[in-house]
Design goal:
The protein is α/β, with parallel strands linked by helices. Helices cover 37% and strands 19% of the residues.
């Protein structure tokens, strides 16, 4: 198959990605159709925490495909049960129920429905700069105007408050609020880290009014920020936890995790044809085992600290701020980031943006030390020469 045919877009609504076509990947390395080799500093958007084609995940997927590829969610199967039990074993005991879907946006949608159903209230409070997905409910919780406007009117009942403004959050939450939906680290919104005060204020406001608290850990979960789940860093436990991306080692999956109380009060039904399919659950079980056994959250913490030291030494006139936790890092530049991303690509490193001026790094937690060091040097060269 020719590169021109592979690269030709047959979809609509997709942002332009240039002419780079990736045909193979292994670990933190990717290869283009023209034979060029790249290091993944963010190309998988956080879904590739174990790197590409991790052997244990690949073996689990292959074995499951031969045994039971698909089963409707109306039937139980051992691999789904094993995956759910393992996931819940890694969470606080207050979490007892999981709804499985296929993506982060779907996990958010299930969380929004669960909150409105369980509380009987309409209101959803989310944060400015937040990003929760592109389906109608998730998009209604998302702040960015350019994402929202083409599809308005969106779902009513959503309000947005400044991120890390505890007083504004407390004022916005009242007896009509069903859910407060926050990211512990805003990835798409520019890699902004929540403060302990803000998250504690969110928990207190929900406790005061009877609203539910949800943390969107689609990007931050499963070791990315130096903890298995980012909320562990602050000791603030939500009522609803939203997971996806790296939860199954790159295989599509979403999970909406709730307390027993939320599940007990839920009225109505929710369903996903492919949610919790055996293939994704087999991959998820393998990915969780690797993440825990290999101490990947601790590795993310250590490599992230190295990254912060390198990035904070970048030329002052070019860099406004360095932010992030673990291996979710953002470099806010004083100019547009696109030329810097293009320069990194020419050097063989693929990173992504988080808004028009933020360079975002989301490498695999398994990235070899040498590749991480080389990537950080490449960033320094690009910024110095840009």
């Amino acid at each position: 198959m020719s590169e021109s045919l592979v690269a030709r877009s047959l979809e609509f609504g997709q942002p332009a990605r240039g002419r780079l076509t990736i045909v193979r990947a292994q670990g933190a390395r990717l290869w283009g159709a023209d034979g060029r080799e790249f290091v993944d500093l963010g190309a998988t958007h956080g879904a590739g925490s174990l790197g590409a084609a991790h052997p244990e995940v690949a073996r689990a997927v292959a074995a499951q495909a031969r045994e039971l590829l698909y089963l409707g969610s109306g039937y139980s199967n051992p691999v789904r049960t094993a995956f759910l039990e393992r996931l819940l074993s890694l969470l606080p005991s207050s979490f007892t129920r999981v709804f499985l879907s296929n993506s982060g946006a779907e996990a958010v949608e299930a969380g929004l429905k669960a909150a409105r159903s369980a509380t009987g209230r309409p209101g959803i409070v989310a944060a400015m700069r937040g990003f929760h997905g592109r389906t109608f409910g998730a998009l209604s919780a998302t702040w960015r105007r350019e994402l929202r406007e083409p599809f308005e009117p969106l779902v009513p009942g959503f309000a947005h408050v400044p991120f890390n403004d505890a007083a504004a959050l407390d004022e916005a939450v009242d007896e009509s609020t069903a859910l407060v939906l926050l990211e512990p680290v805003q990835g798409e919104g520019g890699v902004h880290v929540a403060t302990a005060e803000y998250l504690r204020a969110a928990r207190a406001a929900c406790d005061r009014t009877g609203a539910l608290l949800a943390f969107d850990e689609v990007q931050t979960g499963i070791g990315r920020t130096g903890r298995l789940f980012a909320f562990e860093r602050w000791g603030v436990v939500p009522d609803v936890l939203l997971l996806a991306k790296s939860l199954a080692g790159g295989v599509p999956i979403g999970a909406t995790v709730t307390t027993e109380e939320v599940a007990r009060r839920f009225r109505g039904t929710h369903h996903s044809t492919f949610g919790g399919n055996p293939l994704a659950c087999a991959a998820g079980l393998a990915a969780l085992e690797v993440t825990v056994r290999e101490h990947l959250p601790a590795r993310a913490e250590a490599l992230g600290a190295i990254g912060r030291r390198h990035l904070e030494a970048l030329p002052g006139p070019k860099v406004r701020e360095v932010r992030g936790l673990g291996l979710l890092l953002g470099v806010e530049l004083r100019e547009r980031v696109a030329p810097y991303l293009a320069a990194l690509e020419r050097r063989g490193y693929l990173a992504i943006s988080a808004g028009p001026s933020v360079l975002r790094l989301l490498p695999p937690l398994t990235i070899p030390d040498a590749d991480w060091d080389a990537g950080l040097r490449a960033i320094a060269e690009v910024v110095a020469g840009g």
